[in-house]
Design goal:
Helix 4 runs parallel beside helix 6. Strand 20 and strand 21 form a beta hairpin. Strands 19-15-16-17-18-32 form a six-stranded mixed β-sheet, with no helix packed on it. Among the domains are: 130 residues, no CATH class; 64 residues, no CATH class. The two termini are 59 Å apart. Helices cover 34% and strands 24% of the residues. The protein is of the alpha+beta class. It is elongated, with a radius of gyration of 39 Å.
Length: 868
Amino acid sequence: MLSLKLKFDLHRDVVSDLLRKEASVCRVKEYSGEVDTRILNIERDGGILYSWKGATGTTRIGKFDPVTRNNKLLYTFDKQVCVSSCSLNKDETLLAVSLAQNTRGGERLKPISKCLTLLIEIHPINNTKVLKAVDCRVKVQFLHQDSSRSVLESHLLLLTEDGYVDLYHVLLTKQEGYRVVMANPDRLSKTAERIVEDLCWVQWDGHTQRLYYITHKERFLLRCVQFHPAHNCETVLELPLELPANPFHTVKFANLGFDHYHTERAEKEVVRMHIFTNRIEGSMCVCYSQPAGDKQELIYTVVLVHKDCSKKFRVSLGGDEPLQKASPLHPLFIPIGYYVVVYLRGYFLHCINTRQQEMLCHSLFLSGHGVGPVLRGQSDVLTVLHAESEPGGRVLDLAAGTIHTAELSSAYLLQILQSNTSPRCPSSWTDPQRLAALHCLLVYMGNDPNLELKIIEWLCDNVNTFQTFDQIQEFILASLYRISFEKSLGLDKVLPYSSVFEKKELPASLLEVPGVFCTSESHIESVIKGKTRSLQGFWSELQWNTDRTRNLDAGPNPRFRSSHTAADWNKARSEMRPSSHHLEENTKKVLSMVDTWCLDKKLVPLFQEEDHQQRALIGLTVDRLREHLNRHLPRLGKKKIDSLVVNYVAKLLELIRHMLESVWLKHRLGPRVLSLTQQGSPAEWSVFHFMSRILESVQSLCLPLPPGYHTMLAVFAVRCLPRHAFLQYVDHGFLQLTETFVSRLMTDLDNSDANERLKFSILKRLPQPMERRIYHMWDHPVSSASISRDYVKTLLEKHDKNKGVQCTGRDKPGFRPEFLPLTHVARILSDIEEQALNPFEEQENVDARFVEETALKQTLILLGFEEK
């Protein structure tokens, strides 16, 4: 499920280089001793600090640069020391180090402090200042200042196991043009500023310069301190948490380096916690886990601050490995885009969707072996390195000295869609798993055109709907949601992203996951309390997301649904006349945008005819969607909303065209498939079936189709279906007889007996306005008779309106008064015919034989002796 890419290997990138240097120092060809290399910290720029012990018996600290992939020696101690924490300032002029007391052998009897914290000048090596000498662990971390500011200052965080955080301001000065030394070494303690007290858990986020910590008085409270470029700081977030009693026996440090000499027993870690933020999404997730005693289950919680809700999961551990009772089990929390992957090796892997959190079916729940990354270490030696700038999470295996980037595997997700059973799991994939995999592929990974083609190919091969969802509807809505969300984050709560919300009764399988019990809590009481001037960037977006979620949830459901427009949509479908001027203007905007995208793509003949019905539906969809966004998102402004809505509907039409082009190319169809004179092949039958499914899916969502779609579908239907089945499709409203299609049918098919019967049957099903236009295109006696009848009827109607014409009929020669009404009508027609143009001037004369044949054929049809 997770694909891993090796980004750093301590042995490959560092140790091999150190062995060459040690061989040079010892003046040997190849150094055979051990260097005992250990990773100490990872700085904001990605530089990896490490220590090693070489042949001379000293401890050295170096840095690996991920850009140049070079190693640099920073400092050498004159003896072996135990480095428990280390940090380097941005300009590489100061090194902060915490040294742990060596408790092995007789040294533990010496009256020295447990931890000694030093500040060392390294450019050049000149001075060492003791910052702390205490009997508790100390973590050190430099702030990374803005590059535009003066480099002659550094700011150091010093975090202690006693539960407080100090900030040191170190002034620097240049000597002899290149020497950078501390300007105030004797006054460092006076510059220390206490910024946090009474913490029990702390996490540092170097990329965003934020410090998260938990305090506990009456209840557990999570706070965040934001450091600004000028190194002033303020508390910007407070969030109460529901944690078990005594979750931390000692202060827990996250993202503050790696202490190889801390021997705390693992079972004391009752709660494991991590906080992830995403600047692009404007999201914050607080994740923590707690084992539930001796029960065969595990509890973890994901607090979605940006969604103002919290989800608590209780997972049954029915894995392949026995429970390890010596220490509690804790999963890894790995951020990948807007997903949070919760992974417990050998038991489960859950991809929690933090953007579409309403229903469990949009998160992916997998269990057993083979669903997680292939890492040698257990979760207690694996560390997640989080950075907002990276879409995937980084996992550090401290024992192996490797760093991998973790990404969701598109191949594995496609396998979930394409296979009825998992190759590694005996049970079949469920519909919710397929739905979650499809959404992950479309929304999270949807920018890959090759991946989209594979999904469309899967749609073609799996035309029948699943029991709980329509895959074509999901493809359309999820793709449109992704495209729109890229334009504006505010569309998250108001646009549809799944068709399952249209169901009146949701299946239980979409609401429940076997072995996983989820409880949700809304309104988590998060408070963003930064000053107005400082709420910029991420915090401004998070504040807006949280407030918008609360405001929208307080009223009716803000998400646009097709049921809201079903009545107007059905009315527009039933009307054959052109749409109103207002809706026609909407349609022109949409089709003009589609034309600019499709200039070089004429493979499928869409957008090439006037389809009044679909044009009306396109304009109506734009109108209703615009009204919805103006009501729920007035902040965006009318101009941007209009652009978003037009783009949305244009992309809808483009998606349908893209699906047709893909299936066209897959079956290698050419222009001959649009000929009505040939029978359809099996490939064309597959295309017809796929087009029918698209029509069914789109119509149930009350969405328009590209103009020309119904004509193409009718052409395939004539080629592929028996004639009686074709007429049944028309009678039930599934096929619509467009004027373009009927015109081609009348002109392309000859007048054989079978084709005549088909044409008669279609003519009878046409609405009267279209029927009159079509009769003129068919060179057949029946059409001539129809034209004659219409002609006479028109003349009579004109005569009735002409008040000045008076005719008694007695002045004409040959007058027969036997039946005066008939004689009167005959005289009127005779008078009119003398003054009218002959419509059959250039055609054959209509003789008695023609009239007899026509009357006989119509009589047989009426009596039921011939098919229509």
